[in-house]
Design a protein that fits this description.
Elements lengths: L33 H9 L12 E3 L1 H6 L1 E2 L2 E6 L2 E4 L11 H5 L7 H8 L4 H4 L4 E5 L14 H4 L11 E2 L10 E6 L3 E7 L10 E6 L2 E8 L2 E9 L3 E10 L4 E8 L9 E3 L5 E4 L7 E11 L4 E7 L4 E2 L8 E7 L2 E7 L1 E2 L17 E7 L5 H7 L6 E5 L8 H4 L3 E7 L4 H13 L5 E8 L8 H10 L3 E7 L9 E2 L4 H7 L9 E6 L2 H16 L8 H7 L9 E3 L3
The protein binds flavin-adenine dinucleotide (FAD) and NADP nicotinamide-adenine-dinucleotide phosphate.
The site of flavin-adenine dinucleotide has 23 residues, from strand 20, strand 22 and helix 7.
Length: 543
C-alpha cells in the first residue's frame, strides 16, 4: 500500500497514467511520509542552504539549480530549494525534476493547485524572482488600479479577465432599504441554480461567486458597514438573476457598497481562482462501520453553499504547525427511500463519510475533533456533470470502500430525477462484510426500487459469506456490467483506490477486445470509441 500524502508537485508519467485525471504515486522510502517531512521542517535544519537569508533570484540563477542534488523551483514568483523535499514527494523525484530550475507554476496548477505548498515548503523558501520567469502569473489580478475606486452604487464597469464561452459576462448592481442591502448579480445564463451560487460574508467581507460553465464571476468587497450574521440568497432560475440579501446591523443609509477587493468583479476560469475556505462547526460524528464515521459539519449562517453531485471539497487542518489539505466527497445524511420529489438539501450542513486510517495523518487528526470544534471547508471542485446521467439508460456504479461516497448523491439524483434510466446498478467492492457502508440502507433501497440493484463483492470474506467473492476483474465485471439492450446508452462511474479505478477503466479495453491491453495509449482509446464502451461512457472520480 502506498503512503500517500498530498502531492506538492505531481504530474503523472504517461506510462503510469491510465485513469482520466488520475495521477501516479510512487512508494516512498520508510521515514519519508508527510509527517516525517513536517518533522524535518520543524527541526531547525537549514533547508535552503542560505542560513535563513532571503534573496532575489534572477532567471539565470534559477536555471543553474536544475539538478537533483541542487534543485530550485519557482511557483508564483517565489523560489524554493526543493532538494531536501525530493525523497518526500509522493509523485516521485522525476516528476519534481520536470520543473527543476524553471517556473513550475503551470505544472503545479495542472494537477494539485489545492496543495498548500506555501505552508509545506516554507522552510525551503529561497526568495522572490527578480524578473518574472517564463510562465505568466494567474489571471486573478484584475485591472485593479481602475477598479480601486469606491463602489458608489451605480453599475460599475465590468472587468472581464477571461473570455466567456458565449461572450456574455455577468454583472452586478446593488440597492438598499432601511434595513436591507440587496446585491443583484445578473448571471446572463438560463438555468441558474443553488449549486452555482456560493456566498460568504465574514467580518464585513462579502464574497459572492457565480459559476457559469467553467468560468466564475466574483463580487468581493469589504462592506461599508456591518451586517447581521445571516444572509439570504434568492435565485430566479429561468432568467439567471441572483439576489444576495444582507441585513444591516444599523439602520443607516449606506453611501457605497464598500471597497472592492483584489478579485472583485472578475470573470475568469474557475480553475484559476484560489480555493476559498470557511470555518465549519462539527455538530455530530456517528459510526457507520468499525472504522468509518459520518461527520456532520454546519456551515456558518453567513454562507450559502450546496456541493453539487459528484464534486468534492477540501478540508484543511493545521497539523504540527503545517497546513494539510485533503479532499472528501460530501454524502447525504442517509439514503432517501422516497423519490416522489427531488430531495432538497437543507443547505446548512455538509455530511462527510470518512474512513479513519490507524496511521493516517489527516484522518487521525479528524478523529480527534470534538463536537463543537471547527474545521476549514473549501468550495466544491470536480468535473462530473449531471448531464452525463440525464442522457443515459443504464447506470453502473463501481465503488470500492469509501469510493462509495460520490455514488451516494449520484444514486439519489439518478433515482429521483432521471426517469429515462432503466437500470441503476451499484457494484460495491469491500474487504469484509463489516466494511460495507450503509449495507442495510442499500438493501432496503433495492427492495423498494425495482430498477435499482446492488451487488456486494468481498475480497476477504469469512467462510459464512454466500455472496460474490473476488477483486475487480474482467470476468466479474462482464457478469454485472451489461447493456440492458443492444444499443442502450450507458454510463459507468468508478471510484476507489487509484489502482482499482485504473483497472476498472482497463476493463473497458478488456471487455471490448476480449484480451488484455496493458497500457492503452490515447490513440488506442480513440480507436476503441466506436466499439462497446466509449471513453465518454466512463467517468472516473479522481482529485
Ligand atoms: P495518509 O496519512 O495519507 O496515509 C496513511 C496510511 O493510511 C497509508 O499508508 C495507508 O495505509 C492508509 N491510506 C491512506 N490513504 C489511503 C487511500 N487513499 N487508500 C488506501 N489506503 C490509504 N476518503 C474518505 O474516507 N471519504 C471520502 O469521502 C473521500 N473522498 C475523497 C475524494 C477525492 C477526490 C480523493 C482523491 C480522495 C478522497 N478520500 C476520501 C481519501 C482522502 O482524501 C484521504 O486520502 C484519506 O482520508 C487518507 O488520509 P490520511 O491523511 O488519513 O492518510
Ligand atoms: P479498501 O477498504 O482498502 O478496499 C476496498 C476494496 O477495494 C477491497 O475489496 C479491496 O480489495 C479493493 N482494492 C483495494 N486496493 C485495490 C487495488 N489496488 N486493486 C484492486 N482492488 C483493490 O478501500 P478504502 O481504504 O476504503 O479506500 C477507498 C479509496 O477510495 C481511497 O483510496 C480513497 O482515496 C478513494 N476515494 C476516492 C474518491 C474520489 O472521488 N476520487 C472518493 C472517495 C474515496 P483487497 O482486499 O485486495 O485490498
Amino acid at each position: 500500500m502506498l503512503n500517500v500524502p498530498p502531492q506538492a508537485f505531481p504530474a503523472p508519467s504517461s506510462q503510469q497514467r491510465v485513469a482520466a485525471g488520475g495521477r501516479a504515486k510512487v512508494p516512498l522510502k520508510p521515514g519519508r511520509s508527510l509527517m516525517d517531512w513536517i518533522r524535518l521542517t520543524k527541526s531547525g535544519k537549514d533547508l535552503t542552504g542560505l542560513k535563513g537569508r532571503l534573496i532575489e533570484v534572477t532567471e539565470d540563477e534559477l536555471a543553474k539549480h536544475n539538478k537533483k542534488e541542487d534543485c530550485w523551483i519557482c511557483i508564483r514568483g517565489f523560489v524554493y530549494n526543493v532538494t531536501p523535499y525530493m525523497e518526500y514527494h509522493p509523485g516521485g523525484e522525476d516528476e519534481l525534476m520536470k520543473a527543476a530550475g524553471t517556473d513550475g507554476t503551470d505544472l503545479f496548477d495542472q494537477v494539485h493547485r489545492w496543495v498548500n505548498y506555501e505552508s509545506m515548503l516554507k522552510e525551503c523558501l529561497v526568495g522572490r524572482m527578480a524578473v518574472k520567469p517564463i510562465a505568466a502569473p494567474k489571471e486573478t489580478t484584475s485591472t485593479l488600479s481602475e477598479e480601486k475606486k469606491q463602489l458608489k452604487g451605480m453599475l460599475p464597469e465590468k472587468k472581464v479577465l477571461g473570455a466567456s464561452a458565449k461572450g456574455l459576462t455577468p454583472s452586478y448592481d446593488w440597492f438598499q432599504t432601511d434595513s436591507l442591502i440587496t446585491i443583484v448579480i445578473y448571471a446572463k445564463q438560463k438555468d441558474m441554480n443553488a449549486e452555482l451560487v456560493i456566498v460568504d460574508c465574514q467580518d464585513r467581507r462579502l464574497r459572492g461567486e457565480i459559476i457559469v460553465d467553467d468560468h466564475s464571476y466574483l463580487v468581493e468587497v469589504d462592506l461599508d458597514h456591518a451586517v447581521q450574521e445571516d444572509l439570504a440568497v434568492n435565485i430566479a432560475e429561468k432568467i439567471g438573476k441572483v439576489e444576495i440579501i444582507l441585513k444591516k446591523k444599523d439602520k443607516i443609509n449606506w453611501k457605497m457598497l464598500g471597497q472592492p477587493l483584489e478579485s472583485h468583479n472578475t470573470f475568469i476560469k474557475r480553475t484559476d481562482r484560489g480555493l476559498f475556505y470557511r470555518r465549519c462547526k462539527l455538530v455530530s460524528k456517528t459510526e457507520v462501520t468499525h472504522d468509518t464515521k459520518l461527520f456532520c459539519l454546519m456551515l456558518p449562517k453567513s454562507t450559502h453553499l450546496c456541493v453539487p453531485t459528484g464534486q468534492h471539497v477540501y478540508l484543511k487542518q493545521i497539523i504540527a504547525g503545517t497546513e494539510v489539505v485533503k479532499p472528501y466527497t460530501p454524502v447525504l445524511p442517509f439514503l432517501p427511500l422516497d423519490f416522489k420529489e427531488p430531495s432538497r438539501h437543507d443547505g446548512a450542513h455538509i455530511y462527510l463519510m470518512i474512513k479513519i486510517y490507524s496511521c493516517g495523518l489527516f484522518t487521525q487528526a479528524l478523529d480527534h475533533l470534538q463536537v463543537g470544534d471547527y474545521i476549514s471547508v473549501s468550495n466544491p471542485e470536480g468535473n462530473f456533470k449531471k448531464s452525463q446521467v440525464q442522457t443515459s439508460e443504464d447506470l453502473f456504479l463501481l465503488a470500492a470502500g469509501t469510493g462509495f461516497t460520490p455514488m451516494v448523491k449520484l444514486l439519489n439524483f439518478a433515482l429521483t430525477e432521471v426517469s429515462c434510466l432503466r437500470t441503476v446498478k451499484l457494484i460495491f467492492f469491500n474487504k469484509t462484510e463489516d466494511d460495507i457502508l450503509w449495507r442495510n440502507q442499500l438493501e432496503q433501497l433495492a427492495l423498494k426500487v425495482e430498477r435499482f440493484e446492488v451487488q456486494f463483492i468481498l475480497s476477504q470474506p469469512t467462510k459464512d459469506w454466500v455472496g460474490k467473492q473476488g477483486k475487480i476483474s474482467s470476468s466479474l465485471l462482464s457478469e454485472f456490467v451489461k447493456r440492458s439492450r443492444k444499443d442502450s446508452k450507458v454510463l459507468i462511474c468508478i471510484c476507489g483506490p487509484t489502482p482499482f479505478t485504473e483497472q476498472g477503466v482497463h476493463f473497458k479495453m478488456l471487455n471490448q477486445y476480449g484480451h488484455r491491453l496493458h497500457f492503452c495509449s490515447l490513440t488506442e482509446v480513440r480507436y476503441l470509441k466506436d466499439l462497446g464502451y466509449s471513453q465518454e461512457e466512463i467517468h472516473s472520480f479522481t482529485a
